[in-house]
Specification:
Bound molecules: glycyl-adenosine-5'-phosphate
Strand order of the largest sheet: 3-10-11-15-14-13-12
Number of helices: 13
Helix content: 25-40%
Radius of gyration: 26 Å
Oligomer: single chain
Distance between the termini: 43 Å
Largest sheet: 7 strands, mixed
Structural class: alpha+beta
Strand content: 25-35%
Shape: globular
Number of strands: 22
């Protein structure tokens, strides 16, 4: 293994271990041996996730006049996914090793393998055994609705949030009478029976997406595509993903999803390679047209400039929540030296940091310090919400702990606070710089910084 590869594997291990140790993300059902491709979010992970999804909702929905938010059902009627093409098209080519029974996706096998063409392929990269014939593997998770388990009761857990948006297109038009262009957005879970879930949150089986379907006249799709391209880039910056590690890939004909006429992948330099972070697709009128044909319900739109009703075309920015978290964590992870000692910290932007401020009494066995620290904590908690009280261990340990979870500011109440100056020490996470701030000016001071 090369040194570079070792360091990158090491970085992923450090992130996974920090996430578990500090209460961000846990493997699901670990006491029963875990389940590949499923993760649970602990208190800090939920806070980080909510900060990211709230920023997305603000930028993509509430700050705009032309986007309507919805929250549609996860369990999806099979007719919807038959019409959208997922029931026959949402599949990967897979090959199984005859010896170790490991399954591989075409795009995860070395170049020399010939799975894409469906021909018999090479040897298993795990054990050297013979790889079996490539076959299609359908990725949708099935369920049954009602008592009977037959073809009629079959339903799917949605593989993308988008279809719940398309099936509500007519509802939004009828309720709100929007003019084109307008969008419908949602954040929610989607499910994919990935052959090889891997790389922590990168490829999971239960994922969360933030998607907009933006409806335009066909002639207007190019400027709308460009507008959303810029919005995605600005979101990447807003949540603190290192923009230097992001690049755009124009997806070639033949590699695009079945519904897309143009796709850009926003790729991120993950430690395990440059891989898709988000997608932006021009889905044409493919989905609405197919739903109109299959349901028999018109999906046409009547515009004041055009005489004939028509089916709008669609631009879709699609962002994964888990991949956002992973890219934010990787961008924030920093190792340096402070006061001659190595330290690890998460350099989160304050807007995504799960805890904004931690408040400490210098010593936990001095009631007057604890009482004052609790008073300061109470005031800050009311104002900022994500504030933590910490009196475990000594002050150095508390700083290390808060650095590791990315808390931008620590506030310490000491003897001078209660005996002399009614001021506290505020310590900055990144520089370690400490400043004395009057309690009565503390809110203003922190509010400015945060
Ligand atoms: N509606 C379009 C759509 O679903 P996609 O490229 O299949 O397109 C969109 O997925 C985004 O969802 C990806 O760019 C990624 O951020 C996220 N995503 C897709 N599959 C994922 C998986 N198995 N695990 C984690 N995130 C995933």
């Amino acid at each position: 293994m090369t040194k570079d590869k070792e360091q990158k594997d090491d970085l992923m291990e450090k992130i996974v271990s920090l996430c578990k140790r500090r209460g961000f993300i846990y493997p699901s059902f670990e006491i029963y041996g875990g389940l590949a491709g499923f993760y649970d979010y602990g208190p800090l992970g939920v806070a980080l996730k909510k900060n990211i999804t709230n920023l997305w909702w603000k930028q993509f929905v509430t700050d705009r006049e032309d986007v309507y938010g919805i929250d549609s059902a996860l369990v999806t009627k099979k007719e919807v996914l038959q019409a959208s093409g997922h029931a026959r098209g949402f599949a990967d080519m897979l090959s199984e090793c005859e010896k170790c029974k490991h399954r591989f996706r075409a795009d995860q096998l070395p170049e020399r393998s010939d799975l894409k063409s469906g021909k018999r392929s090479d040897l298993c990269p795990e054990c050297g055994g013979k790889l079996g014939e490539a076959r299609q593997f359908y990725m949708m998770l099935e369920t049954h609705i009602g008592a009977a388990e037959d073809e009629a009761s079959l339903a799917y857990l949605r593989p993308e949030t988008a279809q719940g948006i398309f099936t509500n297109f007519k509802n939004i038009v009828d309720s709100f009478h929007p003019k084109l262009p307008f969008g419908i957005a949602q954040i929610g879970k989607a499910f994919r029976n990935e052959i090889a879930p891997r790389d922590f949150l990168f490829r999971v089986r239960e994922l969360e997406q933030m998607e907009v379907e933006y409806f335009v006249k066909e002639a207007d799709w190019k400027p709308a595509f460009e507008m959303w391209r810029k919005e995605v880039l600005s979101f990447i910056e807003a949540i603190g993903i290192d923009a230097k590690k992001v690049s755009e890939l124009e997806v070639a004909d033949g590699d695009r999803a079945h519904y897309s006429r143009r796709t850009i992948d926003f790729e991120f330099e993950f430690p395990f390679g440059r891989k898709e972070l988000y997608g932006l697709a021009y889905r044409t009128d493919y989905d609405l047209r197919n739903h109109e044909n299959a349901s028999g319900v018109s999906q046409k739109f009547l515009d004041e400039d055009i005489d004939e009703p028509f089916i709008p075309h669609v631009i879709e920015p699609s962002l994964g929540v888990g991949r956002s978290l992973l890219a934010v964590l990787l961008s924030a992870y920093t190792e340096d030296e402070m006061n001659g000692e190595p330290r690890t910290y998460l350099k989160f932007k304050p807007s995504v940091a799960p805890v904004k401020i931690a408040v400490f009494p210098l010593l936990k066995n001095k009631p007057e310090l604890v009482a004052k620290a609790r008073e300061v904590y109470g005031v800050l908690k009311k104002e900022f919400g994500a504030v933590m009280f910490d009196d475990n261990g000594n002050i150095g340990k508390r700083y290390r702990r808060q650095d590791e979870i990315g808390t931008p500011f620590c506030v310490t109440v000491d003897f001078d606070t209660v005996e002399k100056d009614q001021a506290v020490t505020v310590r900055d996470r990144d520089s370690g710089k400490q400043e004395r701030v009057m309690i009565k000016k503390l809110f203003e001071f922190l509010n400015d910084k945060l």
